[in-house]
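Board work, copied verbatim: Very-long-chain (3R)-3-hydroxyacyl-CoA dehydratase
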Amino acid sequence: MAAAGSGGSRADNGYGGQQARRRKGPGALATGYLVIYNVVMTAGWLVIAVGLVRAYLAKGSYHSLYYSIEKPLKFFQTGALLEEYLLIAKYLPGIVPSSVVLTAFQVMSRVFLTWAVTHSVKEVQTEDSVLLFVVAWTITEIIRYSFYTFSLLNHLPYLIKWARYTLFIVLYPMGVSGELLTIYAALPFVRQSGLYSISLPNKYNFSFDYYTFLILVMISYIPIFPQLYFHMLHQRRKVLSHTEEHKKPE
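↓ predict structure ↓
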């Protein structure tokens, strides 16, 4: 499911695609609402970042820091579902070329990892791999929501644009690695407990093996991750080269 999500940089459905073919954007009221939404989300992920730093300083160790930010992580990561509605279904289709399927896949993968893996399989919450994707998500989202906010206000600092289209090169593989390792760590506990699995016989004549499903989820990263990563590399070349052209003296 990719930080695919993940933990790296989400497929660019950004508000600030100046070089893309534009359609009519949101009106003043919608823009104001989107600005507020993105400011809140930026602040939320900053809270998560501060929580991680404070917990690390208090404990003197990076192990098991998940518990210090569990509640805000669940809240703000789940809040991304609203963002996808705003972007894909309501206000901003077509402003920047991107795959709706890939974008939705990334969002759902993060929500899935938050609730259906990390929340549901308590044993993995102490794994270092959880911290790996949490740190990647946190840095990514602070940059991304800041990028969206300033883009909506038509005042985007170059540093934020550069960070948006550069740091994903490291953060994306970091987040995906953390996600995959966490799912892998959850597998034996899911098999032992039969979590979310449905066995035959039952009145619906239907069976579901959550253990197998998680394996299929991990396999799905193979085709999805390269598409998302190379999409962002393409966007980086296009956006930053466009910026450099405008910065050249006449």
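Residues 27 and 77 are 26 Å apart (CA to CA).
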